[in-house]
Design brief:
By secondary structure, the protein is an alpha+beta fold. The protein contains 23 helices and 18 strands. The longest helix is centred in the middle third of the chain and has 29 residues.
Length: 636
């Protein structure tokens, strides 16, 4: 039975508001670390935590209230000048916000959260008493010695450190005896802790977090709750008012059309009646178009809601790696389809982690190269036409195309011939190959060669593309191009014989006529030279495994993240903004969905990336094959 029976609506409202507040607190904490004397920031953070604590009180979440109260007291001392902001205190505060988020996981599963990790409570109390600043020389002991010192009596028998005694060993402050805790894993082996902060010592001594405790189910409950909440959306009331007004106008136009229909059926066929009918139909067309745009805007959300969690991630990773990195956000007001926001989260997280781990250098290396010791990673979003562009850029060491080719060659991902013919752009795209990694050693952050492949796959699922720009010694930029919305897809209508098919317009660069004397054979395959670049000719019929009965008259120059090619077609029928209908029950290979044209005809929307991936040979067909077809057509 739920711990919040009868309070479900209040609980969901709290989680939505508190989640936004906590994300804002995390971002302000990262800003506070850069500007520790900013009292305005401290006041904002204090108010945010105070609001969270008040909401938790209404829900009788006693353990969450206790943790918030301790953290709020620490903020109060900081804003009143009784304590100074230090890296040690910031680590404790950020650990507390992380624990609060874990408690939200239990609440999202309709369960009261358990007490916070005793380790965290000890550290918060030490910070409040001013004991967390620095370590006395006598405290420079090994982890094993600290744990041994913290395990007297019953605690030693249970294998669980005595938290108060452990804190006393770290801070040098006598502590009262604490009751024995539940059995836990044995202490880790002795390691040297010289030069580490108290929280690092405690973290190493414990070797586990609250989420490792038996029975922990917070994140699972949170994921399930997030999926349920993702079905709802916040919409500005002015946009709803616009939808309502347009609906009313459409209703009035419908009444006018019904009246005109009655007049025509009654025998009225004069020019004035038909002119009125034409005006009403034109007005209805305009209103429906406006209504469609207004409804689409209700799906749009500021991308800043996605961006706000990344400064904390970048800060924690940089501190863990011993680097000084600042994440700069831009274009947070840019709006994007809400259904895309969740799918963008993981790719952007990986790109930021990649930039902090691989892209930027250590402070010493940057100083030796004449760069500022603090590196910058920029996360930017902007709208360009009917697309959203997202940039993840760093000012680090950049990428070496030759090194990338050598690494891919050593892993057997490419052949010598491919390596010798690759240009710079193709070399950069090697990082997207499964199994490719430039890391020498596998770590918690990188080295397994799976991350960038997943990034590209997730972006492609959103009908987007990702490209890389890099200069050695200057940095690397990942450029993500996405459609404004997934519900409407601009397409180019092409034909094979009389059969119309749709291809995503985002991949189309231009349309070219195909003349047989312009088609050359390179490596046994048909190619065309377009502005000095040799491109393979891929007949759409061969990709679909359809019989090709004539030489295609036109070629569509298309570009993906991996290659450019000429898609050979019979003819084309223009451009349309297709409303995509998915095929959930039956989805043929290479088909992304279907749409209905203005004449009522149903057209398949092709998934070009899947078609190219499933093709046995992506280089095209022999030129002689096209010649034989041409001769057969002439003979007929």
């Amino acid at each position: 039975m739920s711990d919040f029976a009868g309070m479900e609506d209040l609980l969901q409202d709290f989680l939505v508001e508190a989640g936004d507040l906590l994300s804002g607190v995390d971002n302000k904490l990262v800003d506070l670390e850069r500007a520790p004397d900013d009292r305005g920031l401290l006041n904002d953070i204090f108010r945010g935590f105070h609001t969270i604590k008040g909401g938790a009180g209404f829900l009788n979440a006693a353990e969450l209230v206790t943790l918030c109260h301790l953290t709020e007291n620490l903020f109060d001392k900081l804003r009143n000048g009784e304590l100074d902001v230090s890296p040690e205190i910031m680590d404790v505060i950020l650990a507390a916000t992380g624990s609060v988020r874990d408690m939200f996981g239990y609440l999202e599963g309709a369960t009261q959260p358990p007490p916070a990790d005793p380790d965290l409570i000890v550290r918060l109390k030490a910070a409040l008493s001013g004991e967390l600043v620095g370590i006395a020389p006598s405290a420079q002991k090994s982890v094993g010695e600290l744990v041994d010192a913290a395990q007297p009596g019953a605690a030693a028998k249970s294998g669980e450190p005595d938290w108060a005694a452990l804190h006393a060993a770290v801070s040098g402050v006598p502590a009262k005896a604490a009751p024995a805790a539940a059995p836990a894993a044995a202490a880790p082996a002795h390691t040297d802790v010289a030069g580490k902060s108290p929280e690092q010592i405690v973290k190493a001594a414990i070797g586990r977090r609250a989420t490792d405790k038996p029975g922990y189910s917070g994140p699972v409950g949170r994921r399930e709750s997030e999926r349920a909440r993702d079905n709802s959306i916040r919409v500005d009331t002015s946009r709803l008012d616009q939808v309502l007004n347009l609906s009313g106008e459409i209703g009035l136009t419908k009444n006018r059309l019904n009246a005109l229909r009655s007049e025509i059926l009654a025998g009225s066929a004069d020019n004035e009646t038909f002119h009125a009918l034409d005006v009403a139909v034109s007005q209805l067309d305009l209103l429906v178009s406006d209504l469609q745009n207004a409804v689409m805007k209700t799906r749009m959300q500021p991308i800043g809601r996605l961006f706000q969690k990344y400064p904390r991630i970048a800060r924690d990773l940089a501190r863990n790696l011993g680097k000084d990195v600042e994440l700069v956000l831009a274009g947070e007001e840019t709006e994007i389809d809400k259904t895309m926001i969740e799918d963008l989260s993981d790719p952007i997280i990986h790109l930021i982690r990649n930039a902090v781990d691989h892209g930027v250098e250590s402070s010493d290396e940057r100083k030796a190269n004449g760069k500022p010791t603090k590196s910058a990673v920029r996360l930017e979003a902007r709208q360009e036409g009917d697309h959203i562009v997202i940039l993840v850029a760093d000012d680090g060491r950049g990428m070496d195309p030759e090194k990338l080719r050598t690494k891919a060659l050593s892993k057997g991902l490419i052949t010598d011939e491919e390596a010798n013919t690759m240009d710079e752009r193709q070399s950069f795209n090697l990082v997207f190959m499964p199994g490719f990694s430039t890391a020498e050693n596998v770590s918690d952050v990188s080295g397994r060669g799976v991350g960038m492949d997943v990034v590209r796959t997730n972006i492609q699922k959103l009908n987007g593309t990702i490209d890389i720009k890099s200069a050695q010694g200057q940095g690397t930029t990942f450029v993500i191009n996405l459609p404004l919305t997934l519900a409407i897809l601009p397409v180019l209508l092409v034909r094979l014989g009389e059969q119309p098919l749709a291809v995503p317009l985002s991949m189309v660069r231009e349309i070219l006529p195909i003349e047989l004397d312009q088609v050359q054979e390179v490596g046994g395959r048909a190619t065309m030279v377009v502005r000095g670049e040799v491109l393979p000719v891929l007949p759409l019929a061969s990709l679909l495994d359809w019989p090709m009965e004539r030489v295609p008259d036109y070629g569509v120059l298309m570009q993906t993240a991996e290659q450019s090619f000429v898609l050979a077609i019979d003819s084309f029928a223009g451009r349309e903004d297709a409303v995509i209908k998915s095929l959930d029950d039956f989805r043929p290979k290479g088909v992304a969905g279907v749409t209905t044209l203005s004449n009522g005809q149903i057209v398949l929307i092709l998934d070009m990336k899947e078609l190219l991936g499933s093709a046995g040979d992506q280089r095209g067909v022999p030129r002689s094959y096209l010649t034989r077809i041409a001769r057969a057509a002439l003979a007929a």
